Amino acid sequence: MSKDISRRNFVVGSAVAAAAAGLAACASSTTTSTGSDAGSAADATETTAAASSDVFTAPDASAYPIDADGDDVEPLWTSSTSRKDKFTLYTNPEGGRDVSVMDTAKMIQVDGLAFRDMNGDGKLELWEDWRQPNADRAKALAETLSAEEIIPLMWHNGFTSTVTPLVDDSIALIEQGQRSGVSRVMASGDNYADAISWMNAIQEECEKSELGIPFLNSTDPYSVLDIPQPVGLAAAMDEDLWRRAGNFFARIWRSTGVRCDLGPQIDVGSNPYWCRYSGSVSEDPALNRDFARAFVGGLQSTWGDNVAATDDQGWGKESVAAMVKHYVGAGAEEGGRNDHNDAGKYDVFPGDNFNAHLIPFLDGACNLDTKTEATAAIMPNYAIAYDYDQKYGENVGGGFSVYRNSILRNAGWDGMITTDWQITYMNPNMGGGRMWGVENLTPAERELKGIKADDDQFGGEFLPEYLTEAYNSYVEEYGEEKALERLQNSARRIFKVMLDVELFDDPFDDRAIAEEIFQDSAFTDFAVEAGEKCIVMLKNKDNIISADGLGDKPKAYIPQVLKGGGMFSTEEARFELGLDEDIANEYFDVVTDTIGEPTGQAAGGFGPNAAPADENADPVYQQSDAQRPSDEELAKCDYAILFVTAPFVDSSLVQDGDTNKCTYFPPNMQFRPYTATGENVATESLAGSDLDTPQGDSVTGSPYDMVNHGTKENRSWYGNTTESGSEDVLDNVIAVKEALGENGKLILVVSQNNAMCYHEIEPYADVILTHYDSVSSKALANILTGQTEPSGLLPNQQPMDMDAVEAQLQDVPRDMECYTDSEGNTYDFAFGLNWSGVIDDDRVATYSADALTEPETEVIPGE
Description:
Elements (H helix, E strand, L loop, with lengths): L4 E3 L2 E4 L52 E2 L10 E4 L6 E4 L7 E3 L5 E4 L2 E4 L6 E2 L9 H9 L4 H4 L4 E2 L11 H9 L3 E3 L9 H16 L8 E4 L10 H4 L5 H17 L4 E2 L23 H16 L20 E7 L18 E2 L11 H7 L11 E4 L3 E2 L16 H9 L5 E6 L21 H10 L4 E3 L4 H15 L1 H21 L10 H8 L2 H13 L2 E5 L14 E3 L2 E4 L10 E4 L3 H7 L1 E3 L2 E2 L30 E2 L3 H5 L3 E7 L6 E4 L6 E4 L8 E2 L45 E2 L4 H14 L4 E8 L14 E6 L4 H8 L17 H6 L25 E2 L2 E2 L3 H6 L16
Helix pairs in contact: 1-12, 6-7, 7-8, 10-11, 11-12, 14-18
């Protein structure tokens, strides 16, 4: 028997021979930790006995169930118990898989190896045997289940509480069979221990169930450790960087209890005023395809240190499943509005370019060049791919579309389809439903339609009673055998995702691993590197930005920037110097703002856009609480480095409560107010609701059906005006430029999500750097001071003005007239400057080619 050894910061005790009943006596395996508060232990002193390769050979399917070893079989595993996280880890010999349990009675030994006895029957089932291929395990379990057992699995919802001990509602959902959901904990270096404690408690509750099926915990994508999000990473146009970014995100998320990313969002953002562009990648099908292939490959595979092809281990201990979205056409949103709402329920294709929007999915996410082969899951979009003659199938939302989903299946992709949130039931406490095109069906009828569209899970809901009703209708139409087969196929796909991320075998998480990651400088170093590569230099008058830097300790006005606060933020609003403070003080004689007392109102509810301000809360900082230096002080500065958020207001509407008539307002991508009276403004919308359809009720949801007949609602915004809310930003830039005088240089750092109209602000800037999403202030400082040469390229076109925006076709990328600045440079797709001038490299040649319109994968829709 082995003495105490350590592995993964656990205390390891001796392996005890399995009892005749197949349960390991594990009490002696726990020892007192001598390491950190997270549960670290002493160095290893001994290893397990060597294992013959024969024990890793999967038995024939006919051999199951297999009895546990007798007490004459020596264990090949070691065990360890986490002092903080309480679960016991069984480490099998090299070539085997780790197994973790909270209840040690749920471990079984076969052939000297440790397995989870998930159903607690003392025997090893094929689906419990990690030596079998994951696909075979998933199929074996699915085929044993009844419709009643599968229906609770077909939801991807979540919990109202993420605290431990678990609240009664959370326990009740587990007992009812819910096994997938999104957590919006967004674990960081501050709260990862709580996130892990909660998820381990959920997994412990699952372990107690009859079959022991674990919980698939997902997360919305979010920025962590300053690593840019996809919309920011796009500007690097570097597949190696994207793959590494996927790997870094996976390691962070996996260590904090997340096994599935509800992303990346790879929609082709061909509509420049699409309000959800900030969550996607770019407007170019090929760029999005290559990003999806690299990032998803990086996310799903477990890698060695270099994240190179030779390091690709396939699914493993650091893998996170991807659920790419929103399939398909969401980037061609009519009016650019949000498809969560009735105002945004149509995608339109005036350029007949629907197939281009398939490219990132079919050729990218479904055809990886890594060992995991294809994205684990796909989320259909909310909106109707609209055509009056139903060219893109029935005019219904993505989760109900046989036409669209069958393209995936006919291309050979067999992953999990999880619908977007709340498409079957209108819950007024959750903001209503999004059941576009099926408003007048009942919830059960909508779910029946989803089953027929081959959905495997319904997102954001847990309504097994309606799905049971839908299943019974399916039985009546197709017979019980075919109906059960249909549900077992969904169960198989769901289990395959769980198995690929090792949930059946090792569902518990160790906060010591997360602690190590959040303290590892490799992650922050990568964030700086990625940020540098994602910064685009648009203007560099007189070669101000160069390897020579900005001079010997020049005086520079660097304002304070408001950080934190707002929707989804886990940090309080605060002011920080716009650049890394240590670097700024090293290279500049810094002049900055004076910060007054906070005067803003704290948001109530879920976020500032979702609830009124909380009148009783303490004041919070807002940007106006920073007062810039006097004109006299600015006149002494050699530089002013100003940080600007690009103006963007999406299209909105006002509805008359008596008539239900809506007045639509244009988007605005400039600083000054925009009135939509140009020659390219459409006077009639391409899509619109049928005004002849009677208003619905609280169950059916929307008052309007899709447009198939009758009088069409006109959603044009012609003649209406939208303020930007950013005029003061432009006014400040102009005022600072004037105060600098002739010798002072103005450097503009722009943070963008969508494209931006530069014509109002560019003339006042000597240098313009732009980035999408967020980059670390150290990365910005390194570019500004000549430590790193700029290399980023524009991932979307910057329009000449708002009329150029109006002229483009919403489904066609790269079709705008672009802005040309005072230096003669045109801000087109794949444009960027380095120290030598306009970048002209292989990336530019590759991505500046004509935009793709057809996927390489054959498009075969179904009906």
